[in-house]
Design goal:
The protein folds into two domains: 119 residues, 2-Layer Sandwich (D-amino Acid Aminotransferase, Chain A, domain 1); 157 residues, D-amino Acid Aminotransferase, subunit A, domain 2 (D-amino Acid Aminotransferase, Chain A, domain 2, Alpha-Beta Barrel), CATH 3.20.10.10. With 289 residues, the chain is of the alpha+beta class. It has seven helices and 16 strands.
């Protein structure tokens, strides 16, 4: 992100109140800061409407349940607050970040006695990648850190604790001139990128990893549905790393990334082909961009 978000102006909703951006602060002794007891969401507003807002807020509550964080607001309430927040900030095209975390009532590992804080922020954020990257395809390296066994982490929650390895992988990728990193899972299969799901076009069919140890993205689900409606065959399966050399097109999906073509993974090069272009156009038309 190129702008300094903490210097932004506007309104943030925090624990039932709309307050100035600069006033949205937490105490240094906060369980969510020390122990990553935090869940969050990322959604986008297009022309004043948040795409699949309800699905995102439903997932926020489910993520909270998985981390024993009991968010004191319903999906309906979060939806209404989001709409009002966009109005108060005069935003029509924006990124929306709801989050919930355990507070500063205690500092031990247990969070049972901690209060739960809930906030929603929104800001203008046109594109995750540059126009050049979208035209030519982004460059991806192979990540050092892998997606863990589901027995070791709450892998189906959108939780802060799961993004530590994503941050490390993304940092190294950017330092080495890449845009992102491809993460394998604990078995050695292809999983996802640091914050986006991945798709491969092999022999005219769309292949994508089974999300059994990483987030089944809302954009991912949307693209699968669009592809099937466009009569493409979509195959969800375990994909070995060596198979990526067989792909003719590759793209990633996510709320921030939307549909982004991939031009290179390590030594493998790909074209920004017709299937990727058609799905990108279909997605942007669907969201109203």
């Amino acid at each position: 992100m190129s702008v300094s978000i903490d210097k932004s102006k506007g309104i943030v909703w925090l624990n039932g109140e709309f307050i100035p951006w600069q006033a949205a602060k937490i105490h240094v002794i906060t369980h969510g800061l020390h122990y990553a007891s935090c869940v969050f969401e990322g959604s986008r507003a297009y022309n004043g409407t948040v795409f699949k807002m309800r699905e995102h807020n439903e997932r926020l509550l489910k993520s909270g349940e998985m981390l024993d964080i009991h968010i004191p607001y319903s999906v309906d309430e979060l939806d209404e607050i989001t709409v009002e927040l966009l109005k108060r900030n005069s935003l029509t095209n924006a990124y929306v970040r709801p989050l919930a975390w355990c507070g500063s009532d205690c500092i031990g590992v247990s969070s049972r006695t901690c209060s739960v804080n809930t906030a929603i922020a929104a800001w203008e954020w046109p594109s995750y990648f540059s126009p050049e990257a979208l035209n030519e395809g982004i460059k991806i390296c192979l990540a050092d850190w892998i997606r863990p066994d589901p027995r070791t982490a709450p892998v189906h929650a959108k939780a802060s604790c799961l993004y530590a390895i994503a941050t490390l992988n993304k940092n190294k990728a950017e330092k080495n001139g890449f845009d992102d990193a491809l993460m394998l899972d604990w078995r050695g299969y292809v999983a996802e990128c640091t914050g986006a799901n991945i798709f491969f076009i092999i022999d005219g069919k769309i292949h994508t990893p089974i999300p059994d140890c990483f987030l089944n993205g809302i954009t991912r689900q949307t693209i699968i549905q669009l592809a099937k409606e466009m009569a493409y065959e979509v195959i969800e399966r375990f994909i070995e790393y060596k198979e990526i050399a067989q792909a003719t097109e590759v793209f990633i999906t996510g709320t921030a990334a939307e549909v982004t073509p991939v031009g290179q993974i390590v030594e493998n090069n790909y074209q920004v082909g017709d299937i990727t272009r058609k799905l990108r156009v279909a997605y942007l038309e669907l969201v109203g961009k």
